[in-house]
Amino acid sequence: LQNNVIGALRAGTFGPSTVTLWLYSNNISSIQPGTFRHLPALEELDLGDNPHLRVLAPDTFHGLHRLQALHLYRCRLASLPSGIFRGLRSLQYLYLQENGLLYLQDDLFADLANLSHLFLHGNRLRALSEGVFRGLSSLDRLLLHANRLAVIHRRAFGGLARLTILYLFNNSLVALPGDPLAALPSLQFLRLNANPWACDCRARPLWAWFRRTRVSSSPVPCASPPHRRGTDLRHLRPRDFDACPDDDDEEEEAEDGNGGGGNGVAVMGTPGRALGRPGTLPAAPPSAFYRDGLPPHDPPG
Questions:
Q1: Comparing C-alpha atoms, which of 48, 45, 24 is closest to residue 36?
Q2: What is the pLDDT of residue 287?
Q3: CA 227, chain centre distance (Å)
Q4: For the chain, what is the HEC assignment?
Q5: Under a CB-based contact definition with an 8 Å cutoff, are residues 203 and 174 in contact?
Q6: Residue 19 pLDDT more than 70?
Q7: pLDDT band at 27 (very low <50, low <70, confident <90, very high)
Q8: Would the CA dihedral through 198, 201, 205, 211 be positive or negative?
């Protein structure tokens, strides 16, 4: 049913034995309550690329206990109601990129304990709160690039012990106070480039984290102060922070949350095509999950 001019979805349209439902690239603007409620076998639902779809009811996806992949990319969703993902305990792939999302509520993903891939890039997010990713204990890949992020709570990534890939490039980040990356013991790929990093005292937590994790990376260029513009943040020296006030509490919290340090993270630098995925990422899942602009193979690094 993809690539048509369907404008509305109504209850009773789809049979209970439906396993895969592709409705992407239509003109869907409304989804009647109960449309998907009696589809117990549904494993993949693609509603992406429906630019007239701007609002979803809180119970739109309730009852889809076997759903593994949910595509909501390239719609015009400015917000997501509380409880919209409630009960989707089989969900592994959630595509929310290229919408107009302005914020994410705490506990929005609390029921998604099996989610491995969360794509949130290309939205208008400005901040990440403490509980925004609560419950995502299986998350492996989190893409947040090309937003407007300026603030990340120091515990925003708490509980993401299995996360291996985190993209934060092309945002408005000046600093990462409180060492939020210390909560990610499994991290392997991190991208922080294309942010206006301030390489003054505010850079010390991030600089110290790089030293503890022995990161091999491409540059993380400073944007300020003027005499350090273009300098790689990771290559700052201890004496560059001699004039900075001590913050023992912050350093102790960073040590406690690091889970043993030295995890050999690789930080990727220049954005590539599509998602800019680094050249050594693990193999992608089945191609059906990647119609929405993800390359089937990783481009050269």
A1: 45
A2: 32
A3: 33
A4: CCCCCCCEECCCCCCCCCCEEECCCCCCCEECCCCCCCCCCCCEEECCCCCCCCCCCCCCCCCCCCCCEEECCCCCCCCCCCCCCCCCCCCCEEECCCCCCCCCCCCCCCCCCCCCEEECCCCCCCEECCCCCCCCCCCCEEECCCCCCCEECCCCCCCCCCCCEEECCCCCCCCCCCCHHHHCCCCCEEECCCCCEECCHHHHHHHHHHHHHCCEECCCEEEECHHHCCCEHHHCCHHHHCCCCCCHHHHHHHHHHCCCCCCCCEECCCCCCCCCCCCCCCCCCCHHHHCCCCCCCCCCC
A5: no
A6: yes
A7: confident
A8: positive
- Statement: residue 76 has pLDDT above 80: yes
The owner of tokens 């110290």 is: 208
pLDDT-derived band at 274 (thresholds 50, 70, 90) equals very low
